TrEMBL record:
Keywords: Membrane, Transmembrane, Transmembrane helix. It comes from Pseudonocardia zijingensis. Residues 18-154 form the DUF1468 domain. InterPro entries: DUF1468. This is DUF1468 domain-containing protein.
Length: 160
């Protein structure tokens, strides 16, 4: 097996910072979920935020542990990839476009476009499967939240 090169110190520190942010977000989500009023419904209002907060905390803790283990062997290298700033601007533009198109085109179409744009900007192969995965993911989220849980998502002119 080929030996991999040591991780870049900037990347390890960024991983640790992101893990810390995820832990803070987890605490906020869990505290807010705990403050939601109890109901007699089978699935209460904290049914989704509480496990999401726990998952955020687990991922954040995992990132911090990984960064702690990797930092002593991390080397110095080039911290930026070519055109990284342009990709970040592209992702911000995709998010703004999503927010603007959501009320017009609905959740599934807008989310599919956001997924495709983000995947392509982050280096996914340019083929039909990116759009298919984006649509499948957006449709599944729409079905779960809109149809099963009852949270109304913008349907757009096509009803989805």
């Amino acid at each position: 097996m080929a030996e991999s090169s040591p991780a870049d110190r900037h990347t390890v520190l960024a991983t640790a910072a992101f893990g810390g942010l995820l832990l803070v977000a987890a605490v906020l989500v869990i505290v807010d979920a705990a403050r939601l009023p109890a109901t007699s419904a089978v699935v209460g209002p904290a049914a989704v935020p509480l496990p999401v907060g726990v998952a955020l905390g687990m991922v954040g803790a995992g990132l911090l542990v990984h960064a702690r283990r990797t930092l002593p062997t991390a080397g110095t290298g080039t911290p930026w990839q070519p055109r990284a700033g342009l990709r970040v601007l592209g992702l911000v533009a995709a998010l703004v476009g999503f927010a603007l198109l959501l009320p017009l085109l609905g959740y599934v179409v807008s989310s599919t476009a956001l997924f495709v744009a983000a995947a392509l900007l982050l280096g996914a192969p340019r083929d039909w499967r990116v759009a298919a995965w984006g649509w499948a993911l957006a449709a599944a989220v729409f079905l779960v939240f809109d149809r099963l849980i009852g949270l109304t998502l913008p349907a757009g002119p096509w009803g989805f």
